[in-house]
């Protein structure tokens, strides 16, 4: 869907790292009406999908001297690569550059130290690829209202954006929504595996699990009811669902596992900051 703020963005947007997440965001920007001639991509291994965008005007691996300062730098390399990549990105950054990072763990302070500019730290997730992501963002104090608006438009092209004031929340955000799609996909895998264990042919079990997860996600998306009510609507008293939930909601159950999983991801996000 066309996004008027995206269409009104002026200046160059340099995307550093056009992998799974950076590539999904670029797709969202172009779908939202961002002029492809405003975008340059730096990535040592440009995928065929991104290469194809050159025909629409996206600049690929532009010469640093020729490109000069950019208005917006989007950093989507792995956190472990950031210090090395940052040195090559710094020539693009002036005091007036918006530096929008989606890297897990990497703090505003680290971004300011390595790149400079006015930093917005964000955490999207991969449903962004179909415009159904959710992003949380936090801005550094020196990011202007106009820069926050540009960051919001770039992030909102892939789904809703929640702004927070407290950067300390970003590790838990990363654990819940950044990594969250992986937990849901694992649920689909394990539901299928359990179906095979219960006697279903593998292809049927895989289809049933996939459609059940996707359909339940869509119901959750479209319904105003709380998740717990949607769950209760499936659960007939004394029926099959109650029998399964007795296991999943038992002690230990999914609650304990999820608390441990989110704690592990939060801890890892903090470690990536070091
Ligand atoms: N995947 C996800 O679900 C999410 C990821 N993120 C964050 O997004 C970032 C990217 O993750 P993801 O897309 O999964 O990773 P990918 O590995 O798919 O993408 C990273 C890309 O950056 C490239 N790259 C490496 N070094 C440089 C450099 N010096 N300059 C420019 N590009 C470089 C990589 O090339 P090469 O492969 O050759 O190294 C790769 O193409 C991470 O910081 C991650 O924390 C945030 C939210 C969700
Ligand atoms: O696994 C990771 O570190 C990244 C950040 C959130 C999702 N993927």
TrEMBL record:
**Residue limits of the Pyrroline-5-carboxylate reductase dimerisation domain?**
167-272
Q: What is its EC number?
A: 1.5.1.2
Residues reported to bind NADP(+) = 76-79
UniProt-listed Gene3D superfamilies: NAD(P)-binding Rossmann-like Domain, ProC C-terminal domain-like
Q: Where in the cell is it found?
A: Cytoplasm
CC annotations in GO: cytoplasm
Keywords of this protein's UniProt record, alphabetized? Answer: Amino-acid biosynthesis, Cytoplasm, NADP, Oxidoreductase, Proline biosynthesis
Can you name this protein? Answer: Pyrroline-5-carboxylate reductase
Q: Which organism is it from?
A: Bradyrhizobium guangzhouense
């Amino acid at each position: 869907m066309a996004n008027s703020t995206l269409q009104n963005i002026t200046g160059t947007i340099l995307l550093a790292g056009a992998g799974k997440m950076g590539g999904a965001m670029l797709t969202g920007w172009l779908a939202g009406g961002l002029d492809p001639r405003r975008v340059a991509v730096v990535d040592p291994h440009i995928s065929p999908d991104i290469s194809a965008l050159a025909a629409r005007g996206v600049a690929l691996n532009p010469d640093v001297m020729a490109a000069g300062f950019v208005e917006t730098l989007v950093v989507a390399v792995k956190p472990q690569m950031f210090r090395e990549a940052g040195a090559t990105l710094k020539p693009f950054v002036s005091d007036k550059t918006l530096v929008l990072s989606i890297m897990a763990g990497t703090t505003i302070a680290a971004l300011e130290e390595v790149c400079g500019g006015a930093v917005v730290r964000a955490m999207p997730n991969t449903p962004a690829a179909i415009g159904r992501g959710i992003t949380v963002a936090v801005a550094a104090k020196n990011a202007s209202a106009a820069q926050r608006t540009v960051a919001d438009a770039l992030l909102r092209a892939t789904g809703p954006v929640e702004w927070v004031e407290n950067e300390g929340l970003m590790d838990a955000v990363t654990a819940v929504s950044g990594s969250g799609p992986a937990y849901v996909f694992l649920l689909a895998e394990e539901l299928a595996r359990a179906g095979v264990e219960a006697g279903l042919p593998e292809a049927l079990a895989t289809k049933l699990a996939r459609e059940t997860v996707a359909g339940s996600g869509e119901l959750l998306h479209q319904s105003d009811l709380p998740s717990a009510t949607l769950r209760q609507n499936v659960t007939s008293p004394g029926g099959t669902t109650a029998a399964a939930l007795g296991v999943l909601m038992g002690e230990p159950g999914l609650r304990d596992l999820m608390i441990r999983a989110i704690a592990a991801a939060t801890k890892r996000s903090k470690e990536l900051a070091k």
